[in-house]
Amino acid sequence: MSEASTHPWDDDKFHEECGVFGVWNVTDAAALTALGLHALQHRGQEAAGIVALDQAGIFHSHRARGLVGENFSDKKVIDSLPGRAAVGHNRYATTGETALRNVQPLFADFEFGGFAVAHNGNLTNANVLKRELVKRGSLFQSTTDSELFIQLMAISLYSAVEERLIDALRRVQGAYSLVALHNKALMGARDPSGVRPLVLGRIGPEDGAHSWVLASETCALEIVSADFVRDVEPGEIVIIDDTGVRSIKPFGRTGSRFCIFEYIYFARPDSVMEGIPVYETRKRIGAELARESNVPADVVVPVPDSGVPSAMGYATEAGIPFELGIIRNHYVGRTFIEPTDQIRNLGVKLKHSANRAVLEGKRVILVDDSIVRGTTSKKIVEMVRAAGAKEVHMRISSPPTTYSCYYGIDTPERGKLMAAQHDLAEMARIIGVDSLAFISLDGLYRALGRPARDAAKPAFCDACFTGDYAIPLTDSLESADRQLSLLHSAQ
Fold first, then answer.
1. Distance separating the N- and C-terminal Cα atoms of the chain
2. I want to staple 19 with a disulfide (CB 3.0 to 4.6 A). Which of 90, 220, 243, 478 is the partner?
């Protein structure tokens, strides 16, 4: 992980990984890809890019920092990306600096032709592989781990594109979903543990010529009027060309450890992830939270926007009125005002306003999705109390986050995670609430349709709550060994 740049007033949330999108055999492929990326904007707001393939086999690229609408609303930009196939990417930097050279899709010319790749996730042996490749003469053009797919394909001894990709995927460790485009096909792949999402969609009649879509979430299928076909399976590679869709499973039978935080926060509420509707799941999480830790109160208030469905579920289960006691300003931009110390302290009020008529004199239950550093939670509680709330109780629709994520989510070091440094009573005191409770891990699993968490075979990746990392952390372990060696040598 790296210290990726964040909004100066939004550094107390987990940040989305990235969004990927690809289309095959469609008119105006770049325009559809821009629409798909727009639907996936919540997964990354730092940069966006599209690579399109025209009928003559020529690739066209446009990549830029900023939001999709800022970069692809100009018809001239879309017209510069002709073709019936394209791949696109929304970036939030978890590795690599925030620079244009790291904006995806990345592109390379091979002997078999052009190849563009867009990647969501994080590789946990990237440093080890990069040192090995540099030693043998590879020249890296970016600092993002995603370039490893291209570099590993470049040294592969196989001739076919798909065999080179399989060869590369066998070398990497970590979490990934990716879409790739070459002269003859659109390809999609997921890591063997299926941590990061990828879905397959279809545009057109079942008995006619198909147009195909690959996307991080089903909400991106909806915006281009594509029908959901299925999730790409863990460890599967799908190859889409003019003959249809083929599937390769080079890793054999693999078990799924889908990221549980997709259901809590990352995915858009109208998406369906691994067959589970996100919106309904968040309401069930809220209901489970109410069953576990309800207190007498007058009103249930969500911390917008991600806390809304869970607060609805909580209110219904507890029989307490649901109200919008905090109003979010959706128009705070990244460069609205220079974040001086004084303005930084007021930053939460730029994003959220207290609805005094709802809060004054009330016993309030605040529902949020997570607590990271705790700084934003503290400011929101202060704002609610300043609006006249008589009591403030905070309920969190995830278990305490006590470990960092190494699989593509930008999280602070463990020492900066509030729940890793303080017990529940200390956290409540620091945040300034009358009571604080998190949903239990078993309660979260119950909300997802499981009786409880099976410690021997967890159904999801929940390492941020448990420290149970499903995929080896090669780079981190190597770094720890190196620091230990330096410490011993100094002694």
1. 29
2. 90
Smallest Cα–Cα separation from 62: which of 96, 30, 21, 23? 30
Residue 162, domain member (yes or no)? yes
Q: Is the pLDDT of residue 60 over 60?
A: yes
Confidence of residue 482 (pLDDT cuts 50, 70, 90): low
- 378: amino acid identity, one letter: K
CA distance 477 to 471: 12
| Pair 337, 7: CB distance under 8 Å | no
The reply to whether 450 and 307 lie within a common domain is: yes
CA separation for the pair 97, 94 (Å, rounded): 9
In a domain, 8, yes or no: no
pLDDT tens, position by position, 158-202? 999 999 999 999 999 999 999 999 999 999 999 999 999 999 999
Count: domains in the chain:
2
**311 & 455 share domain:** yes
Residue numbers annotated as active site: 18
Phi-psi region at 121: left, alpha or beta (left = phi > 0; alpha = psi -120 to 50): left
Q: Are residues 416 and 361 in the same domain?
A: yes
**pLDDT tens digits for range 259-285:** 999 999 999 999 999 999 999 999 999
Q: Is the peptide bond before 234 cis (omega within 30 degrees of 0)?
A: no
Task: Give the three-class secondary structure for 421.
Answer: helix
The pair phi, psi for residue 469, each rounded to 5°, is -85, 115
Cα–Cα distance, 128 to 146 (Å, whole number): 14
Question: pTM score, two decimals?
Answer: 0.90
Q: What is the pLDDT of residues 221-258, one digit of tens each?
A: 999 999 999 999 999 999 999 999 999 999 987 789 99
Q: Residue 93's domain spans which residues?
A: 18-257
Residues 288 and 251 in one domain: no
Q: Look up the CATH number of the domain holding residue 381.
A: 3.40.50.2020
- Cα dihedral 330, 331, 336, 340, rounded to 10, equals -30
DSSP output for 270-297: T-EETTEEHHHHHHHHHHHHHHHH----
Q: How many residues does the chain have?
A: 491
